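Design a sequence for this backbone.
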């Protein structure tokens, strides 16, 4: 929702409204003043002028569209959807109307509707449509489709920073790191470009550069889930476990259904010795999607610490069946080989867990958190 900006004295809208005082029944003046008020951000004045026109004569399609935009920017999304849907039914297949409706659906979280509404024709005709489509496909988990669609318009809209940022984010989640870096740089700070650069720096072990990028991202968008998560992971990697874990959990809450962020939050609790808190977060990820290997593996590690080796073995087997490269399952399996399961030895086992190199890369939990946190599933 865009905040209200009253029109200023001497602006075009103010001048047109002044003329209306001399000619109050002039529909053309009312129309022009409403458009000018909208352009200048005075949504209440634009809405009042549109109502004034409607009281004299039904709004034509162009003004109904403007009415929909006013409702959209005022946060009255359902009303805007009704207006754009009605206009679309009357007009046939107008690309601009399809984009306006798609924008509303994105705000309502219906990314499948966004996907249906935006095709190549709409993306070519409406500014920002290509980026919105890529973002929707990213939310739907169709990363390859999103990357292909975005790259198909990348040169046509070479100056579209939002599109570049969307491509960079999809490329990042596909682990196409050089492509992600290229488009994040092209985006020049738009969208989640700074967070993307931060994640890339974090993956390379450059904590200082990562924190700089995440701080810049949060200065631009303090509520960015990805930047909160990323800064938290960077702080944890730098040894600032408590503050890092707090930010990771904030990011996870904002993401909602981003599985990797809940897993990273769980490990943050684990690193601090809060096994109950870690278990609750791993179980939350499991409830969101029981097909995510790291949820089972994380719980398996906790089962080892709690002395339930039979459960740990079952969970480890499930995790490895889902993903042979599952980090936490490999950790659980290594701990199972030596764990005694007694409470007195729990801290010793936890210390081993924190520092045990796993896999060909020799990663420990601290090393692996950045990668785990970036995974959607």
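Sequence:
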């Amino acid at each position: 929702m865009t905040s209200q900006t009253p029109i200023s004295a001497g602006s075009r809208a103010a001048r047109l409204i002044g003329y209306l005082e001399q000619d109050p029944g002039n529909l053309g003046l009312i129309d022009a003043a409403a458009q000018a008020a909208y352009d200048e951000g005075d949504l209440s004045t634009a809405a009042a002028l549109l109502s004034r026109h409607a009281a004299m004569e039904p709004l034509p399609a162009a003004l109904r569209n403007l009415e929909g935009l006013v409702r959209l920017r005022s946060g009255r999304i359902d009303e805007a959807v009704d207006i754009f849907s009605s206009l679309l039914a009357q007009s046939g297949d107008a690309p601009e109307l399809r984009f306006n409706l798609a924008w509303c659906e994105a705000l309502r979280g219906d990314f499948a509707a966004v996907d249906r509404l935006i095709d190549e024709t709409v993306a070519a005709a409406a500014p920002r449509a290509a980026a919105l489509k890529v973002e929707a496909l990213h939310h739907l988990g169709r990363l390859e489709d999103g990357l292909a669609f975005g790259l198909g318009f990348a040169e046509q809209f070479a100056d579209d920073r939002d599109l570049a940022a969307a491509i960079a984010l999809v490329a990042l989640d596909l682990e196409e790191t050089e492509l992600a870096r290229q488009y994040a740089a092209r985006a020049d700070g738009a969208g989640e470009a700074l967070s993307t650069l931060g994640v890339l720096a974090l993956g390379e072990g450059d904590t200082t550069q990562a924190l700089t990028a995440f701080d810049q991202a949060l200065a631009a968008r303090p509520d960015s889930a990805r930047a909160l998560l990323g800064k938290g992971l960077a702080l944890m990697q730098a040894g600032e476990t408590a503050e890092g874990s707090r930010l990771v959990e904030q990011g996870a809450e904002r993401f909602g259904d981003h599985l990797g962020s809940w897993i990273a939050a769980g490990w943050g609790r684990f690193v601090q010795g809060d096994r109950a808190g870690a278990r609750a977060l791993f179980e939350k990820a499991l409830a969101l999607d029981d097909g995510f290997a790291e949820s089972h593996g994380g719980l398996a590690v906790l089962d080892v610490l709690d002395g339930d080796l039979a459960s740990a073995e079952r969970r480890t087997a499930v995790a490895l069946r889902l993903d042979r490269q599952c980090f936490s399952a490999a950790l659980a399996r290594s701990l199972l080989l030596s764990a005694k399961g007694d409470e007195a030895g729990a801290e010793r086992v936890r210390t081993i867990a924190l520092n045990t190199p796993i896999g060909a890369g020799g990663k420990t939990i601290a090393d692996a958190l950045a990668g785990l946190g970036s995974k959607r599933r």
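The first helix runs from residue 12 to 22.
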